[in-house]
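Interim report, section 4.2 (structural modelling).
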Amino acid sequence: MSEQPGASPVIEIDHLTKYYGTRKIVSDISLKIPRGTIYGFLGRNGMGKTTTIRIFLGFEDPTRGTARVFGLDSRSFPPEARARIGYLPEGHHVYGWMTVKECGQFQASYFPAWNQDIFETVLTHFRLTSKMKAGHLSRGQRAGLCLALTLAPEPELLVLDDPALGLDPVARRSLLQSMLYVTRKADRTIFFSSHLLSDVERVADRIAVLDDGVLQADCTVETFRRQIRHFVLKFDNTPPAAPNFPGLLESFRTDRELALTVVNVTPEIENRLEALAPVSIEPVDLTLEDAFISYVGERGEKTFFMNGKEAK
Amino acid sequence: MKAMLWKELRENFKWALLAMIGLCLAEIYGLNYYDPLNYNNRGLTLCNPTFLMATSFGCAIVGLLLGFLQILPEQRRDQWAALLHRPVSRDTIFRGKVVAGLGLYLVATVVPFLICVWLAATPGHFLAPFVPSMVLPGVADIGTGMVYYFAALLVALHRSSWFGARTLALFAAVYLSFFVTSASYFSPALAAAVLMALVLFTAAWGAMRSNGPFHVRPWLAKVALLAAVFYGLCGLGQVAHMLLKSNQQEDYTGSQYRITSDGQPVITTVNKDLTSKVTDLAGNIINDERYTGPRSYENFLFLNEVCYLIGDSHGYDPVSLYYQYRQSERHVAEVQINSFIPLPVSWFYLQEKKYFVGISRLNKQPVGIADTAGFKPAQAPEPFANLDGFAETYGTPCLVRNGDTVLAFDFEHEQMFQLPSVDEGKVYGAQLISFRNKDSSGYDQVIALAFAHELRIYDPKGNPLATLSYHHDDTDHYGTIELGVLGNQAGYLVEYEPSAWIGWGERNRMTSYLEEVDARGNVLHSYDLPPLPFEMTPRSWIDYIFDSTRSPALWFGNLAYQKVGGQMGDKNLADKDEAAFHEGWENTKEIATRLILYSLFFAVIALVWSRRMNFSWGRAWAWAGFVLAFNLAGLITFRLVADWPVRVRCPQCSQKRPVEEERCPHCGAGWPAPASRGTEILDKKEEVAAV
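Predicted structure of the assembly:
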């Protein structure tokens, strides 16, 4: 049975693999981004987020696998399809010698659906005037200008590569507000990579997490947070070393406590924790940021003992 | 494209302006540079070697800079992505960049050049006349600079794992520069520049369209990239050859005929160790200090060339043999005065218009014309009628052929006279010959005219002195007639030998002779001078390598061209064909064998190599064929251009397999999915359905 046109994913990545030389950057990623979702693409630096974006936008060829946007193969991406995609690359590059107005005119000349009202609204939001030289703008203002240039063509799909990188909290908040205000239409899809989990938490419906080029998570924000659990086990004496079981992300031992972060907790895991005979087991709620850091951070046990006392 | 054009023009205009000012200053300096002590660095206005150095290097640098500045600053990868992410094709973006870049390049190079042309063409600025053809070297350099512009685009846009491969495009431009600066004619130089520009433009266009791989480029861009890399290697080879040869001592052994002061021909041989021996024509060694000592050159008689090209040219062009299009003598020749005190007026012969122009040294304004009617004030010139060649001598009197007669111009006294009209037909050459006078206190002069079968000698006022017969085969190659005057003007020495302007192989087929003739034309002595054995300098290993690794496709193609051209009636090509397949057959055979063996060897390497890299048989054979046609350069091109697969160890069989292939070519295994860590959170199916 064929799919409804509206139900077909906007971005479809199928077993995508990318090598630079003999180094594997992206490993067998499969991902579908449904229309109308706001998708956060997470991962530490150098994990393959930007490369994935560049591949599905047709700036790099995949080594294996395919990537499709609006059903079109990224290897032969037609130019007219780019009018439907707003792309804000990392770094907020602008032509420094242009004024803000010239930046808009230059961009508008390529996009037939250019909406000058949106452009000016975003500029106003970032307190930009048309005569300002782009090269003289602050980092936040430059990000605002880039966002205005990206949003004004009213794209169906918005791809933002770490849009808040290097911005102060105020500029970040402005950026998010603009993004959400202008893209409030239901059928508009946003795919953005970020390190700032508070931003992701605020706007994203779903997240995908890349670790070492491998897709580790593809779920709603809520599911992600729910699946990562943190337990504090209290002991009368020095706690034992954490047991090794699947799903254990990290453990932290102090003189009387053993803190464990676990993903995909099952009754069997809970039984194993109780088998350690702690005085108490306290589940602790994690913020998305904490959950993410545990999820992609270094695995294994960390200890912190007072007076140099080492656990036996 | 309009917006891209505007952006590129705005962005790079300042650089173009800066380049224009710099080039303008360099060219004006070059135009005015004159070093009286450096004979090799002389040339008039737009053909001044210093000016041409400014145009050739300047245009190349401007082209390179603009090309790089248009691409490299934007190539930080996200900025490049931002540029490309527009609803226009990459072709449109490339077109916008190229149109703007070429426009700026032309502004930066043509404006300074036009200023220099204006300076050179407006009387009062330089002590030299201006003829339009003097702009040709500068135009060729501007065309060559365009090639550097496209080379820079290709270097910047072409993605290659090894940066050196990218820079080969620059060497392709260098290779072209060698050709443009050494070509005899302007049109082949310009045609080569246009062709190379097209090659590099097409290769750069292909690089812009592709994300890197060779196989996805349009076929025309693939051919262009192969050509660019191949010619880049040729350029690199040429530079390497020059550098290697410059450090290598040439072993030279050579013999030549020389004439003793009493008119006897002898053979002098210079050996590798620079010692020389002198023998008579029978081979007996002459131990005469006068001819073997350190100042022996003073005791040999030097003959003057009366006619350097007589007989059948076999397709050689005397103008191109003498002067390149970059030399001012091709366009305007300055008359040399036999005096250390310069005349108030400098005289110049205009090669195309065929008359003299006199320019005042004082105000650099034209003050006189000398044509068939003699000397007259500067006014609308009346060109010589039927002048069939350029001025024969640039001393004074200056001899100019005019139909069957010769006009002699005495610039010191501003007088012109015509040497007696003769019925023998065409004059092949004229020369003013100086020789020691009777009491050795100075020099006397005679004028010698060469006709088809005789030389006529006149005194400097045009009175006949002697007629000397000589013989030559009209169908043979160009010969040279040389004349010497024996002491006391008692007799003359006439030497006929193959022209130095034709190739060695062909020269070696012609016999020379020397005759001593008295003033009445009677031959007193006659000597046959057979071609001396030509002792080839032993070929060095550098030459051997470069000879053996030439492209068989181009080498055999050239042989075929000579064969077909010769059969279609081109004597020059027929001579070359004959030299290759008859007297030079052994050499031809040896080179052909070497080329075939070497290219076969490299082709086998390419075949084995490409199969080891898991190329399909079709691709492997195609590359082997390419290498067979282009020898070592083809093999290197293959290595640099082909999509070289990245290979990693197969997890199944541990053999190396290409990362792009889904299945291992050795064991057929697919790629395993990334190992599960047990920490995955994938609720994709349910959630997507829910959305």
